[in-house]
Amino acid sequence: MNLPEKIDPVQLARLGSLAIKARVIVEGALSGLHRASVHGSSVEFAEHKEYTPGDELRHVDWKAYGKLDRYYVKQFEQESQLTVYLVLDASASMRFAGGGLAKIEYGGLALAALAYLTIQQQDKVGLVACGDRAVETLVPPRARSTHLHDLLSVLDSIMTKGGIGDESAGDALQRIAELSRRRRSLVILASDLFDGEGETLKAAARLRAQRHDVSILHILDPHELTFPYDGLTQFESLENEHKMLVNPAAIKADYLARMEAFLAKCKTSCTQAGIDYHQVATDRALERTLLDLMITRSRLGPARRAS
Fold it and tell me: Which end of the chain, C or N, has fewer beta carbons within 10 A?
């Protein structure tokens, strides 16, 4: 499949089934990985190096060859199977869509691509939905190809029906900690991190302290980052009945200062805890988001395995 350099997330959302969208994102990211020449060290999900004489042919990834027209060898073929937990924040604030896709939809698409890629690598992947009691669920991690269909079906339902509650993702992360006491896992959370007490970041830090690997896709709408409103405007809370009629020009500077402080706090908290942190706007190409995560994991991989 010939893919454009960047796929607009809104156009991607119209492609059809979630499985098709996930595959398109993955193929775009792997194409970018090939162009970026990220070879040699571990890339979680895409643990490959370019083939060199002497490598065992039985470790050649023929699917990668079919897509990229180059030979790549799977590394760590003999290592234990990776277990990945994908966590989607389905709270009401994730339903906001000002300058792109709704945050819950963008996060769901990113996690769908990660699920597709994980199954392709024959690792185990599970799904946890949180933030909205109506859709809270756990899909246990498995590696079978048929499992991907089931997981994506649940994820699609969450993306469609979720976005009503106001619970923190912290409890879901704690549940993963309890389920994974005997086995280190990779946990990837897609969330806007809008919980007043910061419980989500605290729970993520506890997971990391227990030697689980944690990545956060901090998903924000472009309008949340730039506050592009003009004229008398009524703002309505998505998580309660609160409404506010204001002149945006009068509060813009204070809002942006508070947002900058919030983002700095999130990034600092993750850095101090050893959490892989990615701030992502919903108008950003999803294959670029996935590629950045893969490249970062390639640089962190050896150190993380030794920690």
Answer: N
What is the spatial distance between Cα 280 and Cα 278, in angstroms, rounded to a whole number?
6
Query: For residue 258, is it within any domain?
Result: yes
Residues 99 and 52 both lie in one domain: no
Q: Is residue 179 part of a domain?
A: yes
> Do 226 and 92 share a domain, yes or no?
yes
| 68 and 89 fall within a common domain | no
Encode the chain (307 residues) as per-residue pLDDT tens digits.
444 457 778 778 777 788 888 888 888 887 766 555 544 333 344 456 666 655 555 556 666 666 666 666 665 444 467 899 999 999 989 999 887 789 999 999 999 999 999 998 888 999 999 887 777 888 999 988 899 999 999 999 999 887 777 777 888 888 888 887 777 899 999 999 998 778 999 999 999 999 899 999 999 999 999 999 888 888 877 666 678 888 889 999 999 999 999 999 999 999 999 999 999 999 999 999 998 888 887 665 543 443 4
Residues 99 and 171 occupy one common structural domain: yes
The boundaries of the domain holding residue 51 are 9-74
What is the tally of structural domains in the chain? 2
- Select from 42, 51, 110 the least CA-distant residue to 278: 110
pTM of the model: 0.81
Amino acid at 145: S
